[in-house]
Amino acid sequence: MRDNFAQYFNKPEFRSTLTRYEEMLASDRTFYFEATELTDIAEYYAMQGDSELAEDALDLALKLHPENLDALIFKARARLINGHIAEASHILDNITDQNDREVMFLRAEVMLATHQQAQANELLKTLIEDESHEPNAYADIIDLLVDNGQYDMAALWIDEATQRYPDNKVLTESAAYSHVLQERLDDAIELYNQLLDSDPYSAFYWEELGKIHFKREEYDKAIEAFEFVIAINGDECYYALYAAANCYFNIGNYEKAEEYYHTIHERYPETVDPLFHMGMCRVNRGDDDGALEYFTKALITIPEGSEEQAQIYSQMSLIFSRKGQHEKSVVYLDEAIKICPDNTELIIMKGHELLCQKQYAESTELFLQAIELNTECTERSLFLIAVSMLENGHCEMSHYMLSLLKDNPAIETEVLYPYLCFCEWTLQKENFRDTLNEALDKCPQRTYEIFSLTPAQGESAEAVIERLKRVEI
Q1: Under 8 Å between Cβ of 175 and 190
Q2: Alpha-carbon distance 439 to 323, whole Å?
Q3: What is the DSSP letter of 65?
Q4: N or C: which end of the chain has fewer CB within 10 A?
Q5: List of residues 6+ apart from 140 with CB closer than 8 A
Q6: What are the structural domains, with CATH classification, of the chain?
Q7: How many other CB atoms sit within 10 Å of the CB of residue 455?
Q8: What mean pLDDT do residues 374-399 have?
Q9: How far apart are CA 236 and CA 246, in angstroms?
Q10: What b-and-e string marks burial along 194-233, b requiring 16 or more CB atoms within 10 Å of the CB?
């Protein structure tokens, strides 16, 4: 739903409870927890996307508190979300208090899952009458329908609710939430701005507005929104700090992004991601040594065998490759491949490093392995291998492969054309001028980078050729 639990989950009380629970799992013993503590832990894992751990916490809650209504409802809903409708119905039918409000909402969800929309709507009408058409009841019904993808039904309830309460903030929130899920982002922005007109210091509204602008890649507006959240909430704004950092990273302000990631690392030292992102900021600022320092610190605390660990190893391998330390680069790639053995890009990266060391047979074997593994997108593997060939001076082979991929929809022209253009210039191909025109039209920035030329807006192919001739002289 719309409630933002992130702040609660970062509070010391919850972190202490979670630590005790995870210590219990590690020691294979059973500790006593209140039902509310375990349902909070289940909610935390659910928000992390780990439905299995969430249900494990609920199972313990029901073992310790078998009649707890909240745990039973949460368990039934978890089964429902995971597609086990019969199990959810069984739990629901065995709940003693069938007239409980949340139980009735759960029954409506089960009806929707079994395509009984009319029956669900009748039950919701009973609910709204029982609650005297209160705005909050309307909001809960609308959210339930939206969360279950019943947008047409939700629209009818929104119309009815707003006719009764045209200026109600809770209902406006629900309508905005519905717009976001349906990708009607202009409408959602309008409603959140209305809400901020009446409550300009609402961190929740600013954060939701920031999320929409981020989704639309309107990073300047997103930064403005998230920095309002930070100003309002002070220390308790983990999401907004991260979002602001990501916005600055996406617009290329790596220094400011690093400042935010550093703040996150200081306030939440148990998290590893900020160290990795600080390393990536240094990579983009051309400070490979600074990046290595951050990546090395991240490896100390990161879970062994995790994808994040593999990602750090691959970034470290790229740094050593740029330094010309190809043997050391391979060492880190081997560590990454141990974690992700079927990752074709890592395999191609290792092939590239071996090619740099003139180990032709070994690199060819790895390139072929990658092509065999990546049957769903062979073109991507071929393109990366062609780039490796070019960077190692095998221009004829690179040109042959890139020519095969020309006009292939699987490879974007703005990615391929600069490399193809470079090959044709090096090999003095007759059609170089035509390819250069295409490259300058579709991807001028990358084309200038490939040729190590200073960009010049609107420059003709002839002018670029004259500059290239002067460079050669």
Answers
A1: no
A2: 29
A3: -
A4: C
A5: 105
A6: 303-372 (1.25.40.10), 374-473 (1.25.40)
A7: 10
A8: 94
A9: 18
A10: ebbeeeeebbbbbbbbbbbbbeeebbebbbbbbbbbbebb
Q: Which letter does DSSP use for residue 376 in this model? A: G
H-run or E-run covering 177: helix 169-181
Q: Most distant CA pair in the chain: distance in Å?
A: 89
Tokens standing for 246? 């990501």
> Distance between CA 330 and CA 318 in Å, rounded?
9
Q: Which residues contact 264 (CB under 8 A, 6 or more apart)?
A: 238, 241, 242, 245, 271, 274
The secondary structure of 202-226, three-state, reads CHHHHHHHHHHHHHCCCHHHHHHHH
Q: How many CB atoms lie within 10 A of CB 242?
A: 20
Residues in the chain: 473
pLDDT at 472: 65
Q: CA-CA distance, 153 to 174, in Å (whole number)?
A: 14
Residue 189 in tokens: 């922005």
Spatial separation of the C-alpha atoms in residues 203 and 215, rounded to whole Å? 18
Q: Using alpha carbons, select from 132, 58, 138 the residue that is nearest to residue 105.
A: 138
Alpha-helical regions (H) of 427-460: 432-442, 444-450
Tell me the pLDDT tens digit for each residue of 107-161: 999 999 999 999 999 999 999 999 999 999 999 999 999 989 999 999 999 999 9
- Give me the residue label for tokens 């703005």: 414
Q: What are the distances in angstroms from CA 90 to CA 78, 95, 124, 418, 430?
A: 13, 9, 21, 61, 74
Q: Other CB atoms closer than 10 Å to residue 175's CB: what's the count? A: 24
Sign of the torsion angle spanned by Cα atoms 260, 264, 265, 266: positive
**Exposure b/e, 333-350, CB count within 10 A at least 16 = b:** bebbbebbeebbebbbbb
Q: What single string gives the DSSP state of each residue in 338-358? A: HH-TT-HHHHHHHHHHHHHTT
Q: How many CA atoms lie within 13 A of 100 on its CB side?
A: 14
159: buried, middle or exposed (CB in 10 Å: 19+, 13-18, 0-12)?
Answer: exposed
Angle (nearest 5°) at CA 316 between 311 and 322 = 130
pLDDT in tens, 72-100: 999 998 899 888 999 999 999 989 888 89
